[in-house]
Amino acid sequence: MKNLRNYSGAQFYLSMPIRDPWAVMRHFRHKKMETTQHYLRAIVLDGEEDIEYTSKAVQTKEEAMKLIDANYQYVQTIDGWHIYRKRK
Fold first, then answer.
1. Burial label, 34 (beta-carbon count in 10 A; 0-12, 13-18, 19+)
2. CB of 13 closer than 8 Å to CB of 48
3. How far is 19 from 9, CA to CA, in rounded Å?
4. What are the angstrom distances between the C-alpha of 72 and each of 24, 36, 57, 59?
5. I need a labelling partner for 20 at 20 to 30 A (CA). Which of 34, 37, 45, 88 fits?
6. pLDDT by residue (tens digit) across 18-40?
7. Which DSSP category does 43 fall into?
8. Which residues, in sequence order, are bridge partners of residue 84?
9. pTM, rounded to two decimals
């Protein structure tokens, strides 16, 4: 069961568009972040540097809705521009 737990945590962590250790902590139901960090250090990020994204920036709600329909993920807002990304 320990390997299944590690696999579950790794898949959950890698599936998030923005890596969030606090969400993993809640997923594992840990009380301390140190315990979660033990698991996160064990996750080997295969090819994490090799992942390429297509990025787009929009200002209107209609453009943003089109990007969301095209499976783009919201990243952040800078100076009124909403930035989205999608894996190549």
1. exposed
2. no
3. 12
4. 23, 29, 11, 15
5. 88
6. 788 888 888 888 899 888 888 77
7. -
8. 56, 74
9. 0.47
